[in-house]
Specification:
Distance between the termini: 40 Å
Strand order of the largest sheet: 1-2-3
Structural class: alpha+beta
Number of strands: 3
Strand content: 15-25%
Largest sheet: 3 strands, antiparallel
Number of domains: 1
Helix content: 40-55%
Length: 92
Amino acid sequence: MFESVLTRVNVFRTRYRLSFLKAKDDGLGREMIGSDRFGNRYYQYYSYHGLPTRRIVLYKFNEQSNAFEQDVHFVGWLRRNELIAPTPEELE
């Protein structure tokens, strides 16, 4: 019984967290494009008129190597050499 209550609470917490992140992204005018194998998240910001303005990456810190790592597939997209972000098939 305790496990079912815990599972139900965890489901509501996950739904709340996802809705909070979606509202935060909408408020900032950004869209999550994808994430890589290192856990970094890539975002595209949009202007008030809906035009893409800037691209950023939120790095996931790797404690084992004490450094940030970035997937080479997203480098061209971040530097605007490529217009379309890599697909999940390209990342594999």
